[in-house]
């Protein structure tokens, strides 16, 4: 029987863009400790955000208590909407109230990364200096075509005082001082053409290739895609108070002098 068209609602296929909470250990207390440490400086960072619980990184014999994990995420004010799991995980991972979700990542082919098999320490994730690396034995792949974003950049041309916060859905460009206690947040890159003394958080929706550029780096906290470093950990002399770019390499923040005169 054909259905009549109605002006009041539609049922259509679509894709939902949401954060993935990628589970790498079945130990709930370990996850709770790491969540508390990660968000102690920014407790409202993911408040109200929907997340998909992604269990595909677990080993074949590992299982996590999904209902308990969902409750834990809710304690941190995240809202689980479903589970991303392999076919062999579906029998235990898909539970009442959390349907199995498809993910675009399932169809992407990714090259394996060296040195990622063991569990990394927290200090290694939080920061440090890095060096460029070259791989041999294979021809270099063709450079990827950069994705063009339709979201315009946000430009701030006034100083940001303690307690002020700016959020940008695309890139964020700041032309004046970011004071202690101020916070600048962007889903894309952050450019600061002045001292950064407060907090800067780029790629907050999981954009791993986001970067932070600053002409005078003196931050209280700096973060890319949830990987952060606080001012309690002194920066190396060649980047403290200097022109720097910050990027992620294998879940580690890399600080590199820009060499601006």
From TrEMBL:
Transmembrane segments: none annotated. Residues 103-144 are annotated as: Disordered. Residues 9-80 form the Septum formation inhibitor MinC N-terminal domain. NCBIfam families: minC (TIGR01222). Residues 114-136 have a biased composition (Basic and acidic residues). Belongs to the MinC family. SUPFAM superfamilies: Cell-division inhibitor MinC, C-terminal domain (SSF63848). Residues 155-255 form the Septum formation inhibitor MinC C-terminal domain. This is Probable septum site-determining protein MinC. The keyword Magnesium does not apply. Keywords: Cell cycle, Cell division, Septation.
């Amino acid at each position: 029987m054909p259905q009549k068209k109605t002006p009041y609602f539609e049922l259509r296929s679509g894709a939902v863009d949401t954060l993935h909470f990628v589970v790498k250990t079945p130990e709930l207390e370990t996850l709770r400790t790491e969540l508390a440490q990660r968000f102690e400086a920014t407790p409202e960072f993911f408040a109200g955000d929907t997340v998909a619980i992604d269990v595909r990184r677990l080993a074949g014999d590992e299982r996590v208590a999904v209902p308990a994990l969902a409750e834990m995420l809710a304690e941190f004010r995240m809202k689980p909407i479903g589970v991303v799991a392999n076919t062999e995980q579906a029998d235990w991972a898909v539970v009442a109230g959390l349907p199995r979700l498809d993910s675009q990542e399932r169809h992407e082919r990714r090259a394996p990364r060296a040195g990622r098999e063991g569990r990394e320490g927290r200090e290694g994730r939080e920061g440090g200096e890095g060096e460029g690396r070259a791989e041999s034995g294979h021809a270099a792949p063709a450079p990827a075509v950069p994705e063009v974003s339709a979201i315009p950049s946000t430009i701030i041309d006034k100083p940001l005082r303690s307690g002020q916060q700016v959020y940008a859905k695309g890139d964020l460009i700041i032309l004046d001082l970011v004071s202690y206690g101020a916070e600048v947040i962007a889903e894309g890159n952050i450019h600061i053409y002045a001292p950064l003394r407060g907090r800067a958080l780029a790629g907050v929706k999981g954009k791993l290739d986001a970067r932070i550029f600053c002409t005078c780096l003196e931050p209280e906290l700096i973060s890319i895609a949830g990987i952060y470093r606080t001012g309690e950990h002194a920066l190396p002399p060649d980047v403290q108070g200097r022109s720097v770019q910050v990027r992620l390499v294998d879940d580690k923040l890399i600080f590199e002098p820009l060499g601006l005169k």
